[in-house]
Structure formats: structure tokens, C-alpha cells
């Protein structure tokens, strides 16, 4: 009986946490969006990936799908096309990062997972744009190919890099918050002084990388963007 209750309680905690990450991802997308041509630069993938690193790749798919559909029905002006592309981008990023981190739950595993997520997401979006964008924009595949070096590649690469850097900044504070609320049960480091020093170092590096990715994004796109939600 106790085992059943514990299992049910654990499932409820997991569902509650995943629902919370869905809401946070949507809010993050809603309050911070930069429009570039028909593309949208936002930070929701970082929140999705952070949640997925706690609850696994399946949760990454669920959060990515829920947020993509909510975005389509509320703020998107690209209908089903935007929904599909948003899902592919978020899922590729968060599933890759969480899958690697699942088998190497260390800082090195997180960095490796996020690095691979940047590469995989960028590659997936290049393929998706070549396959899907011609139909949506009613243009030839050659026209889309011409946009890769000047728009699609720099946009997707800097967006993925930005979100990866943001995950490094968010992970420890989110860990403490989830542990404090009882939504996750994680062991506390046996060497707190060393842990604090590592956390501070990672946070500083993450802030530098975030600033670098934003600067690169603005430089590569030469100011051709529009702020949303302002």
C-alpha cells in the first residue's frame, strides 16, 4: 500500500514539475521574442532543456509539443508551419541535451550534451527549412538555400548557442528551487565549498557566453530584427 502511494505521489510530483516547465517555457517565449524575417529568436528552449535534464528526453518531447501548440494558437503569425518548426527546434535541442546528460550526470556531461544540442539543432533546422519552408513561403528550394549563409545558419546557430549558455546559468538555481519545493529529490554535494566555487565559475562563464551570443546575433543580422512583447 505504501509503495503504491509513494509511486502515485512521485508521478504527481513529476507531472506537476513538467506542467510547471511548460508554463515557464511559454511565459519565457511570450515575454521575450525577437522577430527576424519569418523567424523568432527566444529563450524557451533553455527552459525546456533544463526541465528535460531533470525528467528525461520524453518530458522534452511533451514540453516542446505543448508549448509549440500554445504558441500557434496565441501569438504566432506562422500557423502550423511555425508550430512544426518550433517543435523540431525545441525537441532537437532539449532531447539531445537531456539524453546525453541522462547517462553522464556531471558538469562535463551537461556541457557535452549542450554542445551536441547546438550542433544537432542547427543541422535539424537547416534540413527542416529546406524541406518545409519552400511550401510555406511558396518559393523554390534554391531560394531557401540562398538564405542559409546570410539568415538561417547564423540565426539558428546563435539561438542554439544562446539557449545552451542560458541552461548553464539556470541549472543550479532551478535545482535548488526544485529541491526546496520537494518536486525532485537530489543529493546535496558532500563538498559544498567546492560546489559553490564551481557554480560561481559556471555562472560567470555562462553570462559571458550569453553576452557573446547576443552580440554575435545582433552583428550577424545587422540590426534586421524587431522586438516582440514590448
Describe it:
- With 230 residues, the chain is mainly α.
- 81% of the residues lie in helices and 5% in strands.
- It has seven helices and three strands, in the order αββααααααβ.
- Residues 189-193 and 226-230 have low confidence and may be disordered.
Spatial order of the strands forming the largest sheet: 2-1-3
Q: pLDDT average, as an integer? A: 85
- What structural class do helix, strand and pairing data support? mainly alpha
Structural shape: globular
Provide the gyration radius in Å: 18 Å
| Percent of residues in beta strands | under 5%
Distance between the termini: 53 Å
Helix percentage: over 70%
Which stretches are poorly predicted, pLDDT < 50 over at least 5 residues? Answer: 189-193, 226-230
Tally of contiguous helical segments = 7
**Largest sheet: number of strands, sense, barrel closure:** 3 strands, antiparallel
Count of beta strands: 3
- Helix-strand pattern: HEEHHHHHHE
Key traits:
230 residues; mainly alpha; three-stranded antiparallel beta sheet; 7 helices
Give a short overview.
By secondary structure, this protein is mainly alpha-helical.
What does the secondary structure layout of this molecule look like, with pairings?
Blueprint: H1 2-31, E1 33-36, E2 39-42, H2 44-55, H3 57-74, H4 79-103, H5 107-137, H6 141-181, H7 192-220, E3 226-228
Antiparallel strand pairs: 1-2, 1-3
Helix pairs in contact: 1-2, 1-3, 2-3, 2-4, 2-6, 3-4, 4-5, 5-6, 6-7
Amino acid at each position: 500500500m505504501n509503495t503504491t502511494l509513494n509511486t502515485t505521489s512521485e508521478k504527481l510530483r513529476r507531472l506537476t514539475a513538467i506542467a510547471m516547465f511548460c508554463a515557464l517555457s511559454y511565459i519565457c517565449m511570450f515575454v521575450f521574442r525577437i522577430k527576424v524575417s519569418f523567424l523568432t529568436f527566444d529563450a524557451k528552449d533553455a527552459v525546456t532543456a533544463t526541465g528535460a535534464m531533470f525528467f528525461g528526453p520524453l518530458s522534452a518531447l511533451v514540453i516542446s509539443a505543448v508549448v509549440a501548440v500554445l504558441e500557434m494558437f496565441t501569438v504566432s503569425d506562422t500557423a502550423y508551419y511555425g508550430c512544426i518548426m518550433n517543435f523540431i527546434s525545441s525537441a532537437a535541442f532539449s532531447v539531445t541535451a537531456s539524453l546525453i546528460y541522462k547517462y553522464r550526470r556531471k558538469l562535463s556531461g551537461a556541457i557535452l550534451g549542450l554542445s551536441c544540442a547546438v550542433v544537432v539543432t542547427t543541422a535539424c533546422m537547416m534540413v527542416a527549412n529546406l524541406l518545409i519552408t519552400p511550401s510555406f513561403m511558396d518559393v523554390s528550394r534554391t531560394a531557401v538555400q540562398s538564405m542559409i549563409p546570410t539568415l538561417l545558419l547564423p540565426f539558428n546557430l546563435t539561438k542554439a548557442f544562446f539557449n545552451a549558455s542560458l541552461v548553464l546559468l539556470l541549472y543550479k538555481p532551478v535545482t535548488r528551487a526544485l529541491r526546496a519545493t520537494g518536486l525532485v529529490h537530489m543529493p546535496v554535494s558532500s563538498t559544498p565549498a567546492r560546489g559553490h566555487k564551481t557554480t560561481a565559475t559556471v555562472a560567470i562563464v555562462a553570462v559571458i557566453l550569453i553576452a557573446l551570443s547576443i552580440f554575435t546575433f545582433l552583428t550577424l543580422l545587422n540590426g534586421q530584427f524587431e522586438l516582440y512583447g514590448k
